[in-house]
Amino acid sequence: MYQAREMIYLDNAATTRPDPAVVAAMDEVLTDRWGNPSSAHEAGSRAKMSLEEARSSIARLLECNDDEVYFTSGGTEADNWALLGVMDFWRGRKNHLVTAATEHHAVIDTAKWWQEHGGSATILKVDSEGRLDPQDVAKAITPQTALVSVMHVNNELGTIQDIAPIGTVCREREVIFHTDCVQSFGKLPLRFTEMNADLVSISGHKIHGPKGVGALVIRRGLRISPRFIGGSQERNLRTGTENVPGIAGFAAAVGLCARKMPGEGQQIKILRDRLEALILEKIPNVRINGSRTHRSPSILNVSFPGCEGAALLVTLDRRGFCVSTGSACSAGAAGASHVLLALGLDMLSAQSSLRFSFGRFNPPEDVDALMEVLPSLVERQRATAPVSVRGS
Question: What is the pTM of this model?
Answer without folding.
Answer: 0.94
